[in-house]
């Protein structure tokens, strides 16, 4: 994502649109930003690198034992399950490992 700012003008309608009240515009591609800057009406104020998808963390029984109850419940919730179904630490750990095994990550191509 690239953030542009309208400069030295009250408004601009073209490749992108901006005005005095809303001078900032975000574009997704470098090409669109270059076209807008080339008009002379915009300047780049911020460039953000596209975020790479985060690979899901692979949990082991040992790594889960190091987590507290709230952290274990957060993992269960993030997976879309109800953490209240697990009554104790062993249940939570077993449940997380079961969820993880039923949703394998794609590592082979």
Automatic annotation (TrEMBL):
Tree of life domain: Bacteria
Annotated source species: Gracilibacillus orientalis
Domain YqbF C-terminal, first and last residues per copy: 60-98
Name this polypeptide is given: YqbF C-terminal domain-containing protein
InterPro entries in the cross-refs: Rho_N_sf, YqbF_HeH
């Amino acid at each position: 994502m690239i953030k542009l700012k309208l400069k030295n003008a009250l408004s601009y309608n073209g490749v992108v649109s901006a005005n005095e009240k809303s001078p900032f515009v975000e574009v997704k591609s470098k090409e669109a930003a270059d076209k807008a800057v080339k008009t002379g009406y915009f300047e780049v104020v911020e460039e953000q690198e596209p975020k790479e998808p985060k690979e899901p963390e692979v949990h082991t029984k040992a790594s889960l034992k190091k987590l507290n109850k709230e952290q274990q419940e957060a993992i269960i919730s993030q997976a879309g399950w109800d953490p209240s179904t697990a009554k104790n630490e062993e249940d939570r750990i077993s449940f997380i490992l079961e969820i993880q095994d039923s949703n394998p990550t794609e590592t082979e191509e």
